[in-house]
Amino acid sequence: MNPSCCGVILAGGLSSRFEGRNKAFFELNGRRIIDPIIDVFRSVFEEILIVTNTPLNYLQWDVALVTDVFTQRSSLTGIHAGLFYSQTPWVFVTACDTPFITKKMVELVLSKIKPGVVAVMPETPAGTEPLFAAYSTEALPTIEQHLKEGKFKIQRVFSRMRVVKIPAAKVMAADPELWTFFNINTAADFERAKKRLAGPGESSNS
């Protein structure tokens, strides 16, 4: 368990491409998409937060439920809420529609936390992954200022701050197919996830 960091699951999206239905509750192999995420987090963190503006939908899980402090809907707003309510100096953030995250990859990010750093983000050939990343509470004032100014790009917040980026080669050594960063945005994504789980020997939280 990592006592200096808590796990934060962002569950505040509009699911506009799913007619407003909550993707976290879609079932893959008889389990809701959010279930394996919580399983991985329970194996790593003492504290888990779900950031949601519909907390009544998540009462069945024994985790802390918090809502956005700022009203603007954005991933940065959710990261801010996680940092604001966390009892730890660091938070690890992921979205509620990433069913293939692994303990190994979470721990890879956490292993790069060090003094003087405000964020740790993995890189892939497609770019930096700010929604599978660790953030320090030291970044709160800067995040708040950006939100007040209507600036919601995560990368812009940290452009002048010390960030550790895990090189894509190291990330792909741990997850060659980069399933860690696969999130379900569309019906086609959902079908692809089902196909992966139907394959031989696949596991979503090992």
In CATH, the homologous superfamily goes by the name Spore Coat Polysaccharide Biosynthesis Protein SpsA, Chain A
Secondary-structure element pattern, one letter each:
EEEHEEHEHEEEHHEHH
The second-level CATH architecture is Alpha-Beta Complex
Radius of gyration: 16 Å
The description of the largest β-sheet is: 8 strands, mixed
**What is the CATH domain class?**
Alpha Beta
Strand content is 15-25%
Find the count of extended strands (DSSP E, 2+ residues).
Answer: 10
Number of structurally distinct domains: 1
Mean pLDDT: 91
- Give the termini separation: 16 Å
Q: Helical residue percent? A: 25-40%
Looking at the structure, the CATH topology is Spore Coat Polysaccharide Biosynthesis Protein SpsA, Chain A
Shape type:
globular
Helices, by number, come to 7
Uncertain ranges: 201-206
Structural class: alpha/beta
Q: How do the strands and helices of this protein lay out in sequence?
A:
Blueprint: E1 5-10, E2 27-28, E3 31-32, H1 34-44, E4 48-51, E5 64-66, H2 75-85, E6 90-95, H3 103-110, E7 119-124, E8 127-128, E9 132-136, H4 140-148, H5 154-157, E10 163-166, H6 168-174, H7 187-198
Parallel strand pairs: 1-4, 1-6, 4-5, 7-10
Antiparallel strand pairs: 2-3, 6-9, 7-8, 7-9
Short structural summary:
Helix content is 30%, strand content 19%. It has helices at residues 34-44, 75-85, 103-110, 140-148, 154-157, 168-174, 187-198; strands at 5-10, 27-28, 31-32, 48-51, 64-66, 90-95, 119-124, 127-128, 132-136, 163-166.
